[in-house]
Design brief:
This protein is an alpha+beta fold. It is 24% helix and 29% strand. The protein has one domain: Archaeosine Trna-guanine Transglycosylase, Chain: A, domain 4, CATH 2.30.130. The longest helix is centred in the last third of the chain and has 15 residues, at 174-188. The termini are close together. 32% of the residues are buried.
């Protein structure tokens, strides 16, 4: 089975591939089944999109990345893939104070992260622990209209079926990633659970 691509703001993909954060959050895009997020695969390509990202939604140190990712995305009709990820663990958040404990672990402003928690407030916010891997040689493929829209998962044509078959390096060492994961669990006061894959 072909590995799907996990679609996220280009600035967040950049943060994951730079080791600036190991977490991502989801509730589900407008074009997803029942508008709810589900993990299609615990291994995925990282698909950077410039849709919806704005400087004021990021902490000041990262705001310049918006313009930089827009400039990088301007190559005519081509999509660049720099890495892939393992979704190694997850938890759910329902309370603002839980999210506040993770404030230093995202590049988003606290207000923007809180708005994600409040959207569809009856549903919990899924927090994913992401182990990112950077490709030794980036890959480019032709952009297609069906890749657009508000969705978490995209099947990209022209990529190898398994990201592990492509030369890449983990962004963080096993020890460093494990330590960062422990800090997340300490901040929340509970362990993360194994990722739940649907389908």
């Amino acid at each position: 089975m072909t590995t799907p691509a996990f679609k996220e703001w280009a600035v967040v993909v950049r943060a994951l591939l730079a080791g600036e954060q190991i977490l991502d959050v989801r509730k589900g895009g407008l074009h997803e089944a029942n508008r709810h997020f589900a993990v299609r695969s615990d291994r995925c390509w990282l698909y950077p999109t410039v849709e919806h990202q704005r400087p004021e939604l990021l902490k000041p140190a990262y705001r310049r990345w918006v313009a930089e990712t827009w400039a990088a995305a301007s190559v005519d009709g081509m999509l660049r893939i720099d890495g892939w990820a393992e979704l190694v663990a997850e938890t759910t958040l329902t309370e603002p104070d839980e999210l506040e404990r993770l404030d230093g672990k995202f590049i988003w402003t606290h207000d923007y992260a809180a708005s994600r928690l409040q959207w569809k407030h009856r549903h919990p916010l899924r927090v994913l622990a992401v182990r990112a891997h950077r490709l030794q040689e980036p890959m480019t493929l032709e952009y297609r209209a069906e890749y657009g829209g508000c969705t978490s998962w995209v099947d990209l044509e022209g990529l190898p079926e398994d990201p592990m078959s492509v030369a890449s390096d983990p962004v963080l060492t096993d020890e460093s990633f494990g330590t960062r994961l422990q800090l997340v669990e300490q901040a929340l006061g509970r362990p993360l659970e194994p990722t739940r894959v649907v389908g």
